[in-house]
Automatic annotation (TrEMBL):
It comes from Macaca mulatta (Rhesus macaque). Belongs to the CTL (choline transporter-like) family. Choline/H+ antiporter. Choline transporter. InterPro entries: Choline_transptr-like. One of its GO terms (cellular component) is plasma membrane. The gene is SLC44A5. The lineage of its organism: Eukaryota, Metazoa, Chordata, Craniata, Vertebrata. The keyword Manganese does not apply. It catalyses: choline(out) + n H(+)(in) = choline(in) + n H(+)(out). Its main location: membrane. It is a multi-pass membrane protein. This is Choline transporter-like protein.
């Protein structure tokens, strides 16, 4: 059987997936005579962008980012804002933290206790009654206590009157600031959770409370804290380490470039570098986790579990637990075994993938501008992400302070109603519900704009996903056009026109914006459904049963498979758009039929090539990650002195690792798109030509022979 003969069963299969391409002497690659495709989708896409811009402007007018930067007391005043009475009071203090275990916390998203701004947190145990006894002997005790009271508070009130007026807390306990809020200063003593060396304490109302109750209340508060508050600490770390983060990302960019250049000359040798490097980096992680685990076994710092310590002010406490390092070690061991097994079982297909990468290296060498294109994609994606974040912040901080009735005991018929703190004590609500409070709840309003803010958040997220996928689709189509131009040039590089990448990019923008928007819209809708599913899972977590968990797991799996299948089909559709200039649906159909007519070659080449490139991405991100870890943990003093005043060293570390992976992904995706485009063109080439003098193949003889050989081996085994 020669290269051009096809088995009978293969021929019958091809009839179900369209007619093969026929020889066309005028076909020279991407067609020049085109027209606009999917115009309706293009118009809808442009209208959505205009609406997105208008939404950003309206949110900018109504929003106030200060509301995200400063905690707010019960009167709606910012803590620590310059030019206000609270300028030097940067920390939020809760009168009775134990009330934060009330069920109304989840209903109102606010702890049902008075909150004021203070300059520092309490450092000792003291009740209001004890302070009054000490006040008769030394009035300085009141001066220490009053900083945790309202400005109208007096030291001579009875406990009953104090509870009615709600001017002071009935008790204070040792605390420390966390996320600009006073939280209990927990510690461990002989393996027991304590606060101020005490297990129990007086609550100021004549009762005795345990540290466990206080921990549960603190965890209840933490559930209400926005990621915006955590962002303040993260922002401080970024402000300290941004220079080093940029250096790490620049090193990742240079390393990715070096790998891409070396792939052209030593692809086989470089694959072994990828393999040994990835196995070595994961092995280093396993060794480090084992060292930490054994050290904690020999010198335990705590016998508590993750559940025991709960939400802590010092996140590094989690790394003092044996369970943390043991879990990380097991995860890394599983990953190591998976990588080794894949290398063993895919060794033959990896050889074919390496040859494809060599062919891709030649294409990139003749079209070097493709190596610069990831920078443009990165800039466009950065603009989309920044605009989405800014719009989301301004939307979240739009409106005026809204106050709600909060009943500490939860027995008020007026609970959760809107109120006015200025006149609340004179209203019927205060008389009907003794002890009820009129506290700040959130920022909002009754205007049409404020009523639709949740809808605007959904629109902001959806258009963001659409834009992100459109930018990726635009890059894939432009690269596909450039590499298709390379493939269909008979005499390389003489027949390659000038500036093939910029020509392909211009064609994609001018003629196929609608088609690219159509394909990216499908991906955005699937991603939106996944986000909605995760949101419902989060809201219904407490009411889950075994059946609902099983159904949610199945839905996640189905959506993941659907998203990846659509992404694969979209990439090949964009290649057909770049070559023939047809609409999205026609291109997707042609790509699908072409792949199904050559399904054996697809099984040999496609995903294996992605696996080889994935090893390169892991190697780049892992190498930079190890260096960043040693640097930010002060373990490279010989080379450079890392920053010493970090809240969380993992913030810049994870940023460098994730950024390095994205940079490597951007560069290696050029290779992935190149290989996929060459493969699609190769399948077309086999159908159009027969290798004769009149109909010569455009592919190199070496690659042609290997791909045909790999295709025919399964057929012979089948026969």
């Amino acid at each position: 059987m020669n290269d051009t003969e096809k088995p009978a069963d293969t021929a019958s299969e091809e009839e179900d997936f369209g007619d093969p391409r026929t020889y066309d002497p005028d076909f020279k690659g991407p067609v020049s005579n085109r027209s606009c495709t999917d115009v309706l989708c293009c118009m809808i896409f442009l209208l959505c962008i205009v609406g997105y811009i208008v939404l950003g402007l309206v949110a900018w007018v109504h929003g106030d980012p200060r509301r995200a930067a400063y905690p707010t007391d019960s009167q709606g005043h910012f803590c620590g804002q310059k030019g206000t009475p609270n300028e030097n009071k940067t920390i939020l203090f809760y009168f009775n933290l134990l009330r934060c275990t009330s069920p109304s916390v989840l209903l109102n998203l606010q702890c049902p206790t008075t909150q004021i701004c203070v300059s520092k947190c309490p450092e000792k145990f003291l009740t209001y009654v004890e302070m009054q006894l000490l006040y008769t002997k030394d009035k300085s005790h009141w001066e220490d206590y009053r900083q945790f009271c309202k400005t109208t508070a007096k030291p001579v009130k009875s406990l009953t009157q104090l509870l009615l007026d709600d001017d002071c807390p009935t008790a204070i306990f040792p605390s420390k600031p966390f996320l600009q809020r006073c939280f209990p200063d927990f510690s461990t003593k002989n393996g027991t959770l304590t606060i101020g060396s005490q297990i129990v304490f007086q609550d100021g109302n004549g009762g005795t409370r345990s540290v466990i109750e206080l921990r549960d209340a603190a965890n209840g508060i933490n559930k209400l804290l926005d990621a915006k508050s955590l962002g303040l600490k993260v922002f401080e770390d970024y402000a300290t380490t941004w220079y080093w983060i940029l250096i790490g990302l620049m090193i990742a960019m240079v390393l990715s470039w070096i790998f891409l250049i070396l792939l052209r000359f030593i692809a086989g040798c470089l694959f072994w570098v990828f393999m040994i490097g990835v196995i070595g980096i994961i092995g280093y992680g396993i060794w480090h986790c084992y060292q930490q685990y054994t050290n904690l076994q020999e010198h335990p710092r705590s016998v508590l579990t993750v559940y025991d310590i709960g939400i802590q002010t010092n996140i590094s406490m989690y790394f003092e637990l044996q369970q943390t390092w043991f879990t990380l070690m097991i995860i890394l061991c599983i990953i190591e075994v998976i990588v080794i097994l894949m290398l063993i079982f895919l060794r033959n297909r990896i050889r074919v993938a390496i040859i494809l990468l060599k062919e891709g290296s030649k294409a990139i060498g003749y079209v070097p501008s493709t190596l610069v294109y990831p920078a443009l994609t990165f800039i466009l994606l950065s603009i989309c992400i920044c605009y989405w974040v800014v719009t989301a912040v301004f939307l979240a901080t739009s409106g005026v302070p809204v106050y709600k009735v909060i009943a500490p005991e939860g027995h008020c018929i007026h609970e959760n109603q809107t109120c006015d703190p200025e006149i609340f004590n004179t209203t019927e609500i205060a008389k009907a519900c003794p002890g009820a409070l009129c506290n700040f709840a959130f920022y909002g309003g009754k205007s049409l704009y404020h009523q639709y803010i949740p809808t605007f958040h959904v629109y902001n997220l959806f258009v963001f996903l659409w834009l992100i996928n459109f930018v990726i689709a635009l890059g894939q189509c432009a690269l596909a056009g450039a590499f298709a131009t390379y493939y269909w040039a008979m005499k390389k590089p003489d027949d390659i026109p000038r500036y093939p990448l910029f020509t392909a990019f211009g064609r994609a923008i001018r003629y196929h914006t609608g088609s690219l928007a159509f394909g990216s819209l499908i991906i955005a809708l699937i991603q939106m459904f996944k986000i909605v599913l995760e949101y419902l899972n989060h809201r219904l977590k407490r009411t889950e049963n075994t059946l609902s968990k099983f159904l949610q797991c199945c839905l996640r799996c189905c959506f993941w498979c659907l998203e990846n299948a659509i992404k694969f089909l979209n990439r090949n559709a964009y290649i057909m758009i770049a070559i023939y200039g047809r609409n999205f649906c026609r291109s997707a159909k042609d790509a699908f039929n072409l792949l199904m007519r050559n399904v054996l070659k697809v099984a040999v080449t496609d995903e294996v090539t992605y696996f080889v490139l994935f090893l390169g991405k892991i190697l780049v991100a892992g190498s930079i990650g190890v260096l960043a870890f040693l640097f930010f943990t002060q373990r490279l003093p010989v080379i450079a002195q890392g920053p010493a005043s970090l809240n969380y060293y993992w913030v810049p570390l994870l940023t460098v690792i994730l950024g390095s992976y994205l940079i490597a992904h951007g560069f290696f995706s050029v290779y992935a798109m190149c290989v996929e485009t060459i493969f699609i063109c190769f399948c077309e080439d086999l159908e159009r030509n027969d290798g004769s003098t009149e109909k010569p193949y455009f592919i190199t003889p070496n690659l042609h022979g290997i791909l045909i050989k790999k295709q025919l081996v399964p057929q012979k085994q089948k026969e």
